[in-house]
Amino acid sequence: MPQVFHRSTNTFSRVSIFGALFFIAAATYGLALINRSAYVTQAGVARAQPIQFSHRHHAGELGIDCRYCHTSVERTASAGVPPTQTCMNCHAQIWVDSPVLEPVRASYRTDTSIRWTRVHDLPDYVYFDHSIHVQKGVGCATCHGRVDQMNLTWQESSLQMEWCLDCHRNPERYVRPRAEVFDMAWEPPANQLDLGRELMRTYKIQRLTDCYTCHR
Amino acid sequence: MRAVLVRVALVGVVTLAGGGCRRDMQDAPRYDPYEVSTFFKDGRASRHLVAGTVARGQLHEDAAIYTGKSADGFVSALPFPLTHAVLDRGHERYDIYCSPCHDRVGTGAGMIVQRGYKPPPSLHEERLRKLPLGYFFDVMTNGFGVMPGYAPQVPEDDRWAIAAYIRALQRSQHASVDDVPPADRGALDAPAPGAPSGVKEAGHGAS
């Protein structure tokens, strides 16, 4: 009986068996990459807003403190988005004829809310609280990046569970003195780990990795 | 055989139907802060208090604390003891909420004023230095002239702390050597902490 397959097919079959393994591994790795990519997490994508409000202009160049507008960030879970009244504090006198600000004035006149597009949105099954992070020395910039240099706001971090946990496991890598929380330009010093451990002692920071910390 | 098939089909249908009823936990049926509501006419999920309701602990019985005024005019003392912590708090809050216009030392040349806002008077004016503490609380609460009120952004305690800090600012600009305790006067001639030593020498030039 003649050989149906040529000898070389042996090599083919071996290669394809190992190739399949390799393919599965590569596909898994690829999927993991896609899942962490900006395409899925929307990190780094500036959102269109009803008004061209610029943090770069207000927080960066004018030097207005975050808390002037996000008043509740030290006290409550939500950082707070400023009401139109806060804009009118200044814009009742500044750029009063500017068409860019017409939606703000219209909102003030008619007592309707400005509908900002949400940039950060955790799923509702996750509990997040700003106040504890601010009190324990996690800076705005650690999670939100250099907001003071953004024209339209984007999300800097992935907001995935692995991102939260990375810090909850090793807070010493990220915490800073409380007085520096609102300083957007603060850079970790060379001895961040020593400083971090020291701060963990003074602020009594725990490593909160139990599921019920965030899923309650 | 037929009966078994029917049972299997039933289980399948029920499972699929159950899956269809899945509630997406991503967006639970509750309102988050600032969420849009389709129920209320103005579209806001965050509601104002119904007129006339008073939350526990917010009766505001003591008018002096919440208005800065008593029967005989503006009050002149803090409603709580003055400590270093109060001044530090006032300092911090002043820098956040007032310095954009009044600038950090209170002369009224803040960033927003430089961009065209009406310049406020210097807080070191003779007239303002004589006014009682309650007056500053009142200006912050209700605004003054074109200046908006800050009650929505700054809670009462903080407004009092800011008032106390303004007093401290005013004194700082009119301080004399006599205000420094004799024991500390030697420190006045020492270089300012953190000042690079070269600067001092350059300033004193020939000496």
Structural commentary:
- The complex is a heterodimer of chains A (216) and B (207).
- Chain A is mostly helical and 216 residues long.
- Chain A has eleven helices and no strands.
- Chain A has helices at 8-36, 38-41, 55-61, 66-69, 84-91, 102-110, 130-135, 140-144, 161-169, 192-202, 211-214.
- In chain A, helix 5 crosses helix 6.
- Chain A is extended and about 100 Å long.
- Chain A starts with 7 loop residues before the first helix and ends with a helix.
- Chain B is mostly helical.
- Chain B has a domain at 63-174: Cytochrome Bc1 Complex, Chain D, domain 2 (Orthogonal Bundle), CATH 1.10.760.10.
- Chain B is 42% helix and 2% strand.
- Chain B has nine helices and two strands; from the N terminus they run H-H-E-E-H-H-H-H-H-H-H.
- In chain B, strands 1-2 form a two-stranded antiparallel ribbon.
- In chain B, helix 7 (133-142) packs across helix 8.
- Chain B is elongated, with a radius of gyration of 30 Å.
- The termini of chain B are far apart.
- The chains are: A mainly alpha (216), B mainly alpha (207).
- Chain A binds chain B through residues 62-65, 67-68, 71, 77-78, 80-81, 83, 85-86, 88-90, 92-94, 111-113, 115, 123-125, and chain B through 25-28, 30, 32-34, 36, 42-44, 95-97, 100, 111-112, 115-118, 146, 148, 152-153.
Task: Jot down its keywords.
heterodimer, A: 216 residues, mainly alpha, B: 207 residues, Cytochrome Bc1 Complex, Chain D, domain 2, 9 helices, disordered C terminus
Number of β-strand runs of chain A: 0
Number of DSSP-assigned strands of chain B: 2
Q: Please name the CATH architecture of the domain at 63-174 in chain B.
A: Orthogonal Bundle
User: Largest contact between protein chains?
Assistant: A-B, 27 and 26 residues
From the N-terminal CA to the C-terminal CA of chain B, the straight-line distance is 112 Å
Number of helices in the DSSP assignment of chain B: 9
Which strand order does the major sheet of chain B show?
1-2
